[in-house]
UniProtKB/TrEMBL annotation:
Residues 160-182, 259-271, 278-320 have a biased composition (Basic and acidic residues). Residues 242-257 have a biased composition (Polar residues). It comes from the Bacteria. This is Uncharacterized protein. Residues 160-338 are annotated as: Disordered. Residues 321-338 have a biased composition (Low complexity). It comes from Paraburkholderia bryophila.
């Protein structure tokens, strides 16, 4: 392990030499001399290294404080700029989104500063364990970290307060818009309520009229029911006088119902047969029309083929006539040449 520069300085060496010379002039035991030398050297080392360690810790904390102050100043300027921009556009709808973006940006900056502060503290803590005065170095690093942390906390509280104020303003604006809408729609709601109330009252009056009418018609309905019962009793008396027993009356009714059922069944069958015949007539008509169409198409095809055959025959006749004329001309030319 390399020797520390604190123990290589000339004052410490000279002090050690003086101590040895003093103890040489005074007769003391060897153990006492060794203990005294060790105590003196340790005291001098502590006295000389304390200012150096304090100076080193101060130099290490100074850059952190400077960087924290610079970051805080830049963030404050950014916050002021964002605040001014948001204040200028507070009356527009886009300002809400701009303020939200500004809040997010400021929150990201604060989070980044917190991470950087924690990182610097971790580095300083790691470096302190390689120094002589570990606790002193740790306390200085912790104090520096807490100063920056307090600054960040202060700005975080301010940001949270601004966000709460912004949300409160947005709630107030929404409430004002809702109140304005309610006030604007109040006449329409009043008209709807009045119309609904009038319709309800009309229905209630109509219900009362219907109830009164049913109450007034109750005696007539009772009289009709009584008349029906009287007719039933009279009909039973008439059947008894004609000698028709209840069983015969039931049989007659059953026979009548059977006849009515047979008639209805035959009527349904006749309707079904009529519908079937009508469908057959429609199908026959469609088949006849299809045959007529096919016949007309066949006739047109035959005429077209006949016309094409006549044209081909005429063309063939003309070709033969032309060949015959050419042959005659060739014969004449041969005769002339001979």
């Amino acid at each position: 392990m390399p020797q520390s520069p604190l123990f290589s300085r000339s004052p410490l060496v000279s002090l050690t030499r003086v101590t040895r010379s003093v103890f040489k002039s005074v007769p003391v035991p060897n153990g006492v001399f060794a203990a005294s030398c060790a105590a003196g050297v340790l005291a001098v080392a502590l006295g000389l290294s304390a200012p150096a360690m304090a100076q080193t810790a101060g130099q290490a904390a100074a850059p952190m404080m400077g960087s924290s102050a610079t970051a805080a100043a830049s963030n404050t300027r950014a916050a002021d700029a964002n605040g001014g921009m948001n204040t200028g556009n507070a009356d527009s709808t886009a300002s809400i989104a701009a303020q939200d973006n500004a809040f997010d940006a400021r929150q990201k900056v604060l989070d980044q500063r917190s991470d950087e502060n924690n990182y610097r503290y971790g580095v300083a803590e790691h470096d302190c364990y390689s120094k002589f005065f570990v606790n002193y170095c740790l306390n200085k690093a912790r104090d520096s970290m807490r100063v920056v942390q307090a600054d960040i906390r202060k700005e975080q509280l301010a940001l949270d307060g601004e966000q709460r104020a912004q949300r409160a303003r947005e709630r107030d604006e929404q409430a004002a818009i809702k109140r304005a809408q309610d006030e604007a729609s109040a006449p329409q709601r009043a008209a709807d309520d009045a119309r609904n109330t009038q319709a309800y009252q009309d229905k209630q009056r109509q219900h009362q009229l219907d109830q009164a009418q049913r109450t007034a018609e109750a005696p007539q309905r009772s009289a009709n029911a009584q008349a029906y019962q009287d007719k039933q009793r009279q009909h039973a008396l008439d059947q008894a006088q004609r000698g028709v027993s209840p069983s015969q009356a039931a049989g007659n009714q059953q026979a009548y119902d059977q006849k009515q059922g047979d008639f209805q069944r035959k009527l349904d069958e006749a309707h079904q047969q009529g519908a079937q015949k009508a469908q057959e007539r429609v199908e026959k008509q469609q088949s006849f029309e299809k045959k007529q169409t096919d016949a007309a198409q066949h006739k047109a095809d035959v005429e077209s083929r006949q016309k094409q055959a006549a044209e081909k025959a005429e063309q063939k006749r003309q070709d033969q006539l032309k060949q015959q004329q050419e042959l005659e001309q060739q014969q004449k030319l041969q005769q002339q040449q001979q």
